[in-house]
Amino acid sequence: MDKFESQFEDLDVATGYYENATSSATAVGTPQDDVDRLIGQVADEAGVELQAEMKAPESGLKVGANAEEEREEELGERLRALRN
C-alpha cells in the first residue's frame, strides 16, 4: 500500500510539472495580433480569402419538427423519383 501511495504522489508531482510546463506554451501566451498575422499569411499562400466577420445566420432556417417533416418530404420525393 505504501508503494501505491508513493507512486500516486510521484504521478501527482509529474502531472503538476507537466501542466505548468504546457500552460506557458499554449495559445493563451501568444498575442492575438501575431496569430491573426500568421493566419493571414497562410491564407495568402494557399490562395484563400479570409472574411473579417462571419456571416449572420439566415433567418429562414427551420428547426425542430418542421425541419424533420421537410427532410422526410424531400426523402420521399427522392424515393419517388428513383422508382420512376
List keywords for this structure.
84 residues; single chain; 3 helices; mainly alpha
Explain how this protein is built.
The protein has 84 residues and is mostly helical. 67% of the residues lie in helices and 0% in strands. It is built from 3 helices and no strands. The termini are far apart. The mean pLDDT is 77.
Supply the number of helical segments.
3
Tell me the strand percentage band.
under 5%
Radius of gyration: 27 Å
Largest sheet descriptor: none
Helix-and-strand structural type: mainly alpha
Q: Please report the distance between the alpha carbons of the first and last residues.
A: 74 Å
Which word captures the global form?
flat
Q: Low-confidence spans: pLDDT under 50, at least 5 residues?
A: none
Could you write a compact summary of the structure shown?
With 84 residues, the protein is mostly helical. The chain is flat and about 75 Å long. The protein has helices at 2-23, 32-46, 65-83.
Which SSEs are present, and which pair or pack?
Elements: H1 2-23, H2 32-46, H3 65-83
